[in-house]
Amino acid sequence: MHGRPREYKNKLKDPKAAEAYTKKAPAIKQGTTLVLECRRQHRYDQAALTASEKMLKVVPEIYTIWNYRREALQPIFAAGGEAAAAACAAELALTQACLQENPKSYSTWHHRKWVVAQGLADLAKELKLVGSALALDGRNFHAWNYRQFVVKLMGVHAEEELSYTSSLIAADFSNYSAWHYRTMLLPRLYNEDIATVSFDELMATASEQKQQQQASSTTAASDSAAADDSSQQAAAVALRATGCFTGTASQSRPIPLHVLEQEYEMVHQAFATDSADQSPWIYYRWLLGNSLAHLSQAQQQQQQQGGQQQQQGGEQQLEEARVVLGEVLAREVSRFAEHLAVDPDAKWPLLMTARLKEAQARLGLAEGLGLDSSDLQQQVQELYVRLQQLDPLRAGYYADAAAGKAFVVVQALGTV
Amino acid sequence: MATSGAVTPADLGPRSKLLVDKHAAYIASFSTVWEAADKLEHVATEHFWMSGMYWGLTAMELMGRLQDMDTDKVLDWVMSCYRPEDGGFGSSPRNDSHLLATLSALQILALLDALHRADALAVTAYIAGLQQPDGAFAGDKWGEIDTRFSYAALLGCSILGTLDQLDVEAAVHFVTACKNFDGGFGCTPGNESHAGQVFTCIGALSLAGRLDAADQDLVGWWLCERQTRSGGLNGRPEKLQDVCYSWWCLSCLSILGRLHWIDQEALSRFILYCQDEEDGGISDRPDDMADVYHTFFGIAGLSLMGHAGLAAIDPTYALPVKTVQRLQQQQQRQQQQQQQQQCGQGMQEGGSSAPSTG
């Protein structure tokens, strides 16, 4: 569907290719019929499962066949023991084979997650596997999604994942996915108290819940149904592990100033290496947002302390925060001035400069810079008007920005 | 070789205009896709036939060519995909129920003014049953979580007029938790922004009346940065332009009132350049193979930009504006009828408690 050249049509006019092509269609149709007929007869024997395997390797998106496999697997996982371990290995092998052909299949990745959530897989191996997938395609969001799932279950420390992103970025500044992941990790590492839940803890929670349920339940359940149920529950809880991994949406504090400095350094290296790539420039806006958040936090604190003895200290902190922010903004403006001295029509440094000056104007920092406030506003407008000429595709956005109707340098904190 | 820097030629030659007849014939050839036993692209896509039908039918309606489709047959086929045991629809009669297929089925029924054929209570219960404690929606009972499903659930119930049966506040909370540093949204909390997910999240927020939860300037800017030199839009930074993003990005910008932040003329020319002037249909990129998916999204994108000869499309429902207006009128009438019934009941009860005359 994506990226298939039209010459493919001509290829099919070749009789051999056409024959292979036409054979495939009935094979898929009949294969599906066979598997679903087995299911209708409640057949979950090896022959039926092998047929389903063959189908999935060709068309991994047939979600109904994955459903059929999971129905077959549920009692096996519930029973535990060697059979369960073998089943786990088989499913990991199958999904790996499918992913090699189609690394972006939603249903395949989900099945693998479901299998791993049964608690029998070697998570370190899973981490290695997803690392390989990302080495092949660093932007595969399915793989990134899976990585976060595994990392969560393993309890990998944010520090380790942060170095992972650093190495990816060092190898290729264009890896937007790695920059994005940093915005998830930095708040966790430096400020958030989100506990990483290990798989054992998840299993313990699940069996606790089950015990509570059984205690309050009045209906008797057979042993196998109870076992089935608890394995389902644990799987469900583990699958939900992905849902707990919030990032910037729940960021409640800006990342520390000294860390911000390191990040500014990092992006400037990226700018110097490849100034056309969007990734570090978009990341940069988030850094600015964090810088702004230090000021807005100090403002909040000062307001809360109003009227108390500590008012003096609060005001001092606020003034300090203002000075620090002012220095950062001014420094950044001069760094981009260096870029513009070499290439005066470079879009990204111009856009950053416009936004930095806009932030300075909005925060009332013009005076501190020895500028007239309206002069600063004028400069901002001129920059946006210039960008309309230099980047005409986005002229409409720049027009709104020039009119003060589109402001994106906002403090970075989340609301969730 | 396709690159993000590939320029769309000044002269589009045979592709300068929207080739409505060609596209209508192309789509009509899929009119009863379940009957086309031999074609590989039909057989190998059974897992999304329902969505394929929705894309094809809606594209035809936008072009004013719905009558070329066998809509009676289609309706019967859609209903044959309904599974009363759980209240959902499968992507085909023999595929299990799934939220995405259910949404597509409801969109088709709405388009063809046949919603009365659905058991609204049962389908609503199916959708509501997929909501998780944290507000997210699973795609089916096997638990895959994705903001696509949040959109499918909210839109499905909006079409049925039963949005109040979902925990909308929790749904919004989950969607908001998927918001990223760039103002965009990912498939689950912590995942990278992607235009398709941005659409489903902005769409969901719009349906919930909670667009305030989006950083509108920021995400609007991120979206307008998707436009490449070709005039086409990509789905993420440093990725290739693709016609389907003409919809995913454009509909968001439309919902956010920032359609003017991209160059519509350049995008229109890119979409037109992606047409297959020989066999009809639109492809992801110029000179690639066409498919119904890209044909629909290319036409939908052109419609959003007011392309002459196309009916208007609603950016949130991804259905013709006419369809959505009819839906809303029908729902209003239903509400009024319910209110009248309640009033009538109240009067009866009041009457019966009055003392009888001796």
From TrEMBL, chain A:
Keyword vocabulary terms for this entry: Prenyltransferase, Repeat, Transferase
Molecular functions (GO terms): Rab geranylgeranyltransferase activity
Assigned GO CC terms: Rab-protein geranylgeranyltransferase complex
Top-rank EC class of the record's enzyme: transferase
Keyword hit for Repeat: yes
Disordered as annotated region, ranges: 208-227
GO biological process, one term: prenylation
EC number assigned by the record: 2.5.1.60
UniProt entry tagged with the keyword Transferase: yes
Pfam families xref list: PPTA
Secretion signal span: none
Record-linked InterPro entries: Prenyl_trans_a
Swiss-Prot/TrEMBL catalytic activity: geranylgeranyl diphosphate + L-cysteinyl-[protein] = S-geranylgeranyl-L-cysteinyl-[protein] + diphosphate
Function: Catalyzes the transfer of a geranyl-geranyl moiety from geranyl-geranyl pyrophosphate to cysteines occuring in specific C-terminal amino acid sequences.
Family listed: Belongs to the protein prenyltransferase subunit alpha family.
Entry protein name: Geranylgeranyl transferase type-2 subunit alpha
Species, as recorded: Tetradesmus obliquus
From TrEMBL, chain B:
GO cellular component: Rab-protein geranylgeranyltransferase complex
Every Prenyltransferase alpha-alpha toroid domain range: 18-318
Cofactors named for this entry: Zn(2+)
EC number: 2.5.1.60
Cofactor binding, note field: Binds 1 zinc ion per subunit.
Keyword match ATP-binding: no
Catalyzed reactions: geranylgeranyl diphosphate + L-cysteinyl-[protein] = S-geranylgeranyl-L-cysteinyl-[protein] + diphosphate
GO biological process: protein localization to membrane
CDD domains (UniProt xref): GGTase-II
Gene Ontology MF terms: metal ion binding; Rab geranylgeranyltransferase activity
Enzyme class: transferase
Alphabetized UniProt keyword annotations: Metal-binding, Prenyltransferase, Repeat, Transferase, Zinc
Segments for region (Disordered): 330-358
Free-text function comment from the UniProt entry: Catalyzes the transfer of a geranylgeranyl moiety from geranylgeranyl diphosphate to both cysteines of proteins with the C-terminal sequence -XXCC, -XCXC and -CCXX.
Family per record: Belongs to the protein prenyltransferase subunit beta family.
Subunit (UniProt): Heterodimer of an alpha and a beta subunit.
Name used for this protein in its record: Geranylgeranyl transferase type-2 subunit beta
Lineage, broadest ranks: Eukaryota, Viridiplantae, Chlorophyta, core chlorophytes, Chlorophyceae
